[in-house]
Amino acid sequence: MNQYMRKFMKKIVCAVCALGIAAGILVPVQAKEKSSFWLSGTSFDVEGGRLGIYYEKEDAILLKGRVKKSVSKNRLNQADERKIKSVISISDTCRIVFEEEDGSMTAGLYKEWIKDGGGGDYQEGDRMGFCTVLIKVKNNKAVKIIFLN
Fold first, then answer.
1. Sign of torsion over alpha carbons 47, 50, 68, 40
2. Could you say which of 5, 51, 91, 136 would form a disulfide bridge with 41 (CB–CB 3.0 to 4.6 Å)?
């Protein structure tokens, strides 16, 4: 019996080692996917829209409603909508882009836009106006915000 027990223990040790190696390989891949993603949503003000963006403070916004979430911008259309109520911090280098129907674009840094009054002199809790928004989130901070009109 002792010989069988040793073989059994060796198999268990090998299985645990194999699982440890697999977890060591897979965990960084999963963490990377979750640390960088895109969100998209349409404003409450637009028919069928189910998202509100609220000004929290100079370096944060609150998203309430329904959004699509995907690791890639190109796959947002295929993503399912999910409910969200989350405060997202704004990175120091966050870019904000306004894309008009005619294809023209205006771009700049989010923090400059807010400080210079381009943000409409928002107060904490004010809902931000938009039609459709795309937000790139990386390491729990918004790094790019695209407003589509």
1. positive
2. 51
The predicted-structure confidence for 8-55, as pLDDT tens digits, reads as follows: 777 776 666 656 665 666 554 444 445 889 999 888 777 778 888 888
Instruction: Quote the longest CA-to-CA distance of the chain.
Output: 81
Are 100 and 149 contacting, i.e. CB atoms less than 8 angstroms apart? Answer: yes
**Is residue 80 within 8 Å of residue 67, measured between CB atoms?**
no
Q: Provide the token pair at 78.
A: 């295929």
Beta strands in 43-115 (DSSP E): 51-57, 60-70, 81-99, 105-109
50: nearest Cα among 149, 132, 113, 148: 132
Which ranges of the chain would DSSP assign to H, the alpha helix?
2-35, 110-115
